Amino acid sequence: MPPAAERVPRRWLAAGRASRSLVLVVVFVALLLDNMLLTVVVPIVPTFLYMTEYEGANSSVAPAQTEPAPPALKAPPFSSMFSYFDNTTVTVSGSTSAMELVKGTEISPPSQPPATSPPPPSGCPEGEEFLAKENVRVGLLFASKALVQLVVNPSVGLLTNRIGYHIPMFIGFVIMFLSTVMFAFSGTYTLLFIARALQGIGSSFSSVAGLGMLASVYTDDFERGNAMGIALGGLALGVLIGAPFGSVMYEFVGKSSPFLVLAFLALLDGALQLCILQPSKVCPESTKGTPVFTLLRDPYILVAAGALCFSNMGVAMLEPTLPIWMMQTMCSPKWQLGMAFLPASISYLIGTNLFGILANKMGRWLCSLIGMAVVGISLLCVPLAKNIYGLIGPNGGLGFAIGMVDSAMMPIMGYLVDLRHTSVYGNVYAIADVAFCMGFAIGPSTGGAIVRAIGFPWLMVIIGVINIAYAPLCWCLRNPPAKEEKIAILNQECPLQTTSYTTQKTLRDFPLTDDSDVEAENAE
């Protein structure tokens, strides 16, 4: 190959590594696959555990109940009457007697019910008590991912400050791939629980590093809002595809098939990261970031984090409880359990992309305030549905409103750091991801227990009222004040590397002369 032809791919890679758009593509794909794996298990796990544990246990007990057939030949006293006039036996009550079988001239008795009762004519699954307990177990399994992510996130934020964002992104891909393969071949609750927890570690690396990378690349607030909206569109698309894709593949192909497809897509994502991000390169932040505990003492960051937590807690409570409620009340087949989340996913995709631009114009605080109110109203309407079509409106409104909150709060987190702290974003997006994970940890783990105690409708009432009550707090983010020491800290620690929110020191003209230092001291 001629030298000029060899230089073309190298120039393309060099241009790609310097392109902000390709960085956005990498983050988009990583969030897409993470959230596809997050939601693809939602319709699979409840029915898989029901089939393997409840139906498997009953099928093993049924033969033992049907084996002792000979004693059934004995009839209770006075169950039949023999007529010597025409040599026939007339059955009065009970089962057929041994004498009747010998004579072979009996009148057919009424059919007896089988040893195991047939399924209800409505097609609803049996085992009400098992399904009630399964609410709690499935909720804990879903929450394990968020609980692990909750613990790992602060460490990942510190790690990104030390070595940059590229290596943590690639570590997240590797762990995500291992988790996906483990999901494909897990056949017990314990293995599924471990795979879900492992996914939490990989998701922590991918989300914190990816969002921090975007915030560092897009320093302008308007551009950052648009980029965050597109990246959250990847999250929304993963949620959109995951549940319907999982339910259809599980129904018609098998349990392992959706996870094997995701594992293949994860390999493509890893190849993309190798080409664009250079994960072997250590790129530490030039400025020391604000400590996590300092950020957690900022009331404005806490208000934004709370909005992320409570708005996402609603859909997190729906994930383990809605499929089981549909199985009990609507007698829904397996493919409908995932399709029920389709309206929420489509509207979330629309909301994040639409309000990534509109939120900056209408005010992000107002966008999040309206979004949280609509989240609460939509959750209150979910129990009113009588079939899957009745869930279209509430779930659609829920997804659209969560898209409003997420697309407004993610840029606000970066803006608050620029305005009130040092412009290093690993720690603040670790806090944002912690808030997101708290919703997905508290929601499923407590939702299943609440459903078992007081029922699914009351669960929706509780979380809906919480969102409506929290919404007015978003007004506090209308005009957050800047800290006075912000400019002084930036001038001392990083006079030459500032963002659009900071004021740079006046630089001396070049070329410098020997008397430049003396003149500068006199000027000060």
Automatic annotation (TrEMBL):
It catalyses: serotonin(in) + 2 H(+)(out) = serotonin(out) + 2 H(+)(in); dopamine(in) + 2 H(+)(out) = dopamine(out) + 2 H(+)(in). It is a multi-pass membrane protein. Keywords: Cytoplasmic vesicle, Glycoprotein, Membrane, Neurotransmitter transport, Synapse, Transmembrane, Transmembrane helix, Transport. GO terms for cellular component: synaptic vesicle membrane; terminal bouton. Residues 110-123 have a biased composition (Pro residues). Residues 72-482 form the Major facilitator superfamily (MFS) profile domain. Coiled coil: none annotated. GO terms for molecular function: serotonin:sodium:chloride symporter activity; xenobiotic transmembrane transporter activity. It holds the Pfam family MFS_1. Residues 105-127 are annotated as: Disordered. Gene3D superfamilies: MFS general substrate transporter like domains (1.20.1250.20). It is found in: Cytoplasmic vesicle, Secretory vesicle, Synaptic vesicle membrane. GO terms for biological process: aminergic neurotransmitter loading into synaptic vesicle. The chain crosses the membrane at residues 21-45, 171-195, 201-218, 230-253, 300-318, 338-358, 365-385, 397-417, 424-443, 455-477. Belongs to the major facilitator superfamily. Vesicular transporter family. This is VMAT1 protein. It comes from Cepphus grylle (Black guillemot). The lineage of its organism: Eukaryota, Metazoa, Chordata, Craniata, Vertebrata. The gene is Slc18a1.
